[in-house]
Amino acid sequence: MLRVVFGVSQMSEPAYDAQVARLLRDAGHEVVYAGEVATAAQTAAIAVQEDADAVVLVADDPAAAEELTAALAEYDAADVAVHVVTADQPFTVNDILTR
User: Fold this and answer.
1) What span, in angstroms and rounded, lies between the C-alpha atoms of 76 and 36?
2) What is the dotted CATH code of the domain comprising 3-96?
3) pLDDT tens, position by position, for the chain (99 residues)?
4) How would you label 34-63 residue by residue, b for 16+ Cβ within 10 Å and e otherwise?
5) Where are the domains positioned within the chain?
6) What is the pLDDT of residue 62?
7) Contacts of 89 (CB under 8 A, 6+ apart)
8) The dihedral of CA 89, 92, 97, 98: what is its sign?
9) In angstroms, rounded to a whole number, what is the distance separating the alpha carbons of residues 46 and 40?
10) Of 38, 41, 61, 58, which is closest to residue 49 (Cα–Cα)?
11) Given Cys at both, which of 83, 87, 91, 93 links 27, Cβ 3.0 to 4.6 Å?
């Protein structure tokens, strides 16, 4: 079981967000809902505070993963897996939790 911080962007769809969170939970992972996060630094701070193994962010731009990875490195948390899910891509739990 992994501890996953789950955040969403301002442009995400609530029904889709819930679907992703349920998928993670049903796979046996502990999901910490971070809510709507504005910056990579905020998300990284939450991940460090929650001692997360992974961060899943529903966002418009897959490039958000690079920003989040850099922010986690600044917190000396480069071992936290990062995955950005966009609404136009199909996904599985294995996809989500793989860098």
Assistant:
1) 23
2) 3.40.50.280
3) 899 999 988 777 888 888 889 999 999 999 999 988 878 999 999 999 999 999 999 888 888 889 999 999 999 999 999 988 887 776 777 776 664
4) beebeebbebbbbbbebebbbbbbbbeeee
5) 3-96
6) 80
7) none
8) negative
9) 10
10) 41
11) 93
The reported pLDDT for the residue numbered 88 is: 77
The DSSP 8-state label assigned to residue 60 in this structure reads: S
**Cα–chain-centroid distance for residue 78?**
14
**Residue 50 backbone phi and psi in degrees, to 5:** -90, 0
Q: Name the amino acid, one letter, at 55.
A: V
Q: Per-residue b/e over 73-82, b at no fewer than 16 CB within 10 Å?
A: eeeebeebbb
Ordered alpha helix ranges (H), the chain: 14-26, 40-49, 64-74, 93-96
**Residue 54: enclosing H or E segment and its boundaries?**
strand 54-58
pLDDT number for residue 99: 46
Q: pLDDT value at position 97? A: 67
